[in-house]
Every structure is written in C-alpha cells, then in structure tokens.
C-alpha cells in the first residue's frame, strides 16, 4: 500500500501572476507527486497546505485538554482537540510523508511548527515513562518514510559547509521526524534563491531531478512489494 500524506508549508502559492513569486518548495514537492503518479499508483493521497491554511497555535486550554483523561474531558475540551485528532489520524494512515518547506530565518515556518505541535502529542504519537530514565519519551508510530523538501535563500547549510551552524531547519525536521514514526528520511534541497544566479538554477534543476528520480524509485519499490504480496 502507498498512502501519501503531503504537507506544504510555504506561504507562497504554487503559481502566481509573477513566476518569480512561485513557491519553489511546493513546486518541487508537486513534481515528486506527479512523478510518483506516472511511475506507480497512489492508494490514498492526503494533502494539506498549512502555509495557506495554517492550523491554530496550541493554547493553555489545548494543553489542558491533552492532559485530561479522555473519559473526563468536557465537550469544550473535546472540541479543542478535534483538529489535532484529525491531523494525527492522517499521519497514522500514511506510509510516506512529503513535507515541503522554505527556510524562514534559518528555521521552519511558524505554520509548519504549528502542524507539528498539533500532531506530536502525548499518548497519541509518543508516550512518556520516567522508568526509562533520562529518555522518557518513546514514539508510538513506526515504519514511515519522510521526504523532506526545502528551499533556501542562501547556501552551504550542511556540515562542514560555511552555514552549517545556522541551519535550524533540517536538524529540527530530523529530530521531530522520530515522533512521526519515520524510520527512513530523504532530503531534497534547493539553494541560492536570493542570489538568483547560475548556481541557483543549477541547484534548482538538481532538486527537480532528484524529486523525479526518488519518486520513481520509491513508487517502483512499492509496486514490487505489492506484486510480491499478490504472488506469495
């Protein structure tokens, strides 16, 4: 089975009147999805554009509802968690997670952080047990693959490059991915956007090509697995 949960988080649209304003990260992500569809079937496709339609930030009341036992929650508390429950259900169903994100101020957009805060939730995607000593948090989900697609205005964010210490985007995604049940993670990054020179064009072409190739590989792998199951 291949259920894909696709989260876009740029505040920019895929297409704009000025092409220079088009979201790079969203366009690369959609190239990935289109390439997958051409190479193989998607059993279920779940899409959310949290950049355009962001989930609300969590509040004190939200936290109070989370830490109230389910059988003791008031109707108001249950309503507080309706969206969170929906987003978690989408995550649980997914085999593959595609997250596209720009780098804003060296980290992820607030809208994407808001999505993570709604889905990384105690007793839903992780549990907490002090008997584990200094590592009490344990993910409850597993077996998922994350394709993280990012666009950066500058360049050199991976160690040992010149801006590695300023990169708070991919390291954050890698850390949080554990609580999405991710066991395999792929990264596709386009750089040099603010320079708008040949380096940017080369990086962009490479990102599109990587998205296409990776989608074909993963779709092909899924078809092989499904074929093996049918013939077993």
Total domain modules:
1
Share of residues in helices: 40-55%
Sheet/helix structural class: alpha/beta
The general outline is globular
Walk me through the structure:
By secondary structure, the protein is α/β, with parallel strands linked by helices. The protein has one domain: Rossmann fold (3-Layer(aba) Sandwich), CATH 3.40.50.360. Helices cover 40% and strands 18% of the residues. It has seven helices and seven strands; from the N terminus they run βαβαααβαβββαβα. It has helices spanning 24-39, 60-66, 75-80, 82-93, 110-119, 170-177, 198-231, and strands spanning 3-8, 44-49, 96-102, 126-128, 137-139, 144-151, 182-190. It has a five-stranded parallel β-sheet with strand order 2-1-3-6-7, sandwiched between helices. Strands 4-5 form a two-stranded antiparallel sheet. Helix 1 packs parallel to helix 7 (198-231). The longest helix is centred in the C-terminal third of the chain and has 34 residues, at 198-231. The radius of gyration is 19 Å and the shape is globular. The two termini are 16 Å apart. The model has no long low-confidence stretch (mean pLDDT 96). Quinone reductase that provides resistance to thiol-specific stress caused by electrophilic quinones. Homodimer. It comes from Pseudoalteromonas rubra.
What is the fold's blueprint, element by element?
Blueprint: E1 3-8, H1 24-39, E2 44-49, H2 60-66, H3 75-80, H4 82-93, E3 96-102, H5 110-119, E4 126-128, E5 137-139, E6 144-151, H6 170-177, E7 182-190, H7 198-231
Parallel strand pairs: 1-2, 1-3, 3-6, 6-7
Antiparallel strand pairs: 4-5
Helix pairs in contact: 1-7
Function: Quinone reductase that provides resistance to thiol-specific stress caused by electrophilic quinones.
Organism: Pseudoalteromonas rubra
GO molecular function: electron transfer activity; FMN binding; oxidoreductase activity, acting on NAD(P)H as acceptor; oxidoreductase activity, acting on NAD(P)H, quinone or similar compound as acceptor
């Amino acid at each position: 089975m291949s259920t894909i949960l696709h989260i876009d988080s740029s505040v920019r649209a895929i297409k704009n009147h000025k092409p220079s304003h088009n979201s790079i990260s969203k366009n690369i992500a959609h190239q990935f999805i289109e390439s997958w569809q051409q190479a193989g079937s998607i059993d279920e496709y779940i899409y959310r554009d949290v950049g355009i339609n962001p989930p609300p930030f969590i509040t004190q009341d939200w936290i109070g509802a989370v830490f109230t036992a389910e059988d003791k929650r008031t109707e108001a508390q249950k309503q507080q968690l309706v969206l969170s429950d929906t987003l978690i259900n989408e995550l649980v169903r997914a085999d593959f997670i595609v997250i596209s994100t720009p780098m804003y101020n060296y980290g992820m957009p607030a809208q994407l952080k808001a999505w993570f805060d709604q889905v990384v939730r105690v007793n839903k995607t992780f549990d907490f047990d002090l008997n584990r000593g200094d590592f009490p948090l344990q993910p409850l989900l597993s077996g998922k693959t994350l394709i993280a697609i990012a666009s950066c205005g500058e360049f050199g964010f991976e160690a040992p490059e010149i801006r590695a210490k300023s990169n708070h985007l991919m390291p954050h995604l890698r850390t949080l991915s554990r609580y999405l049940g991710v066991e395999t993670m792929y990264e596709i990054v386009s750089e040099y956007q603010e320079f708008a020179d040949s380096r940017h064009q080369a990086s962009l072409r490479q990102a599109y090509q990587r998205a296409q190739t990776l989608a074909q590989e993963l779709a092909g792998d899924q078809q092989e697995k499904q074929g093996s199951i049918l013939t077993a």
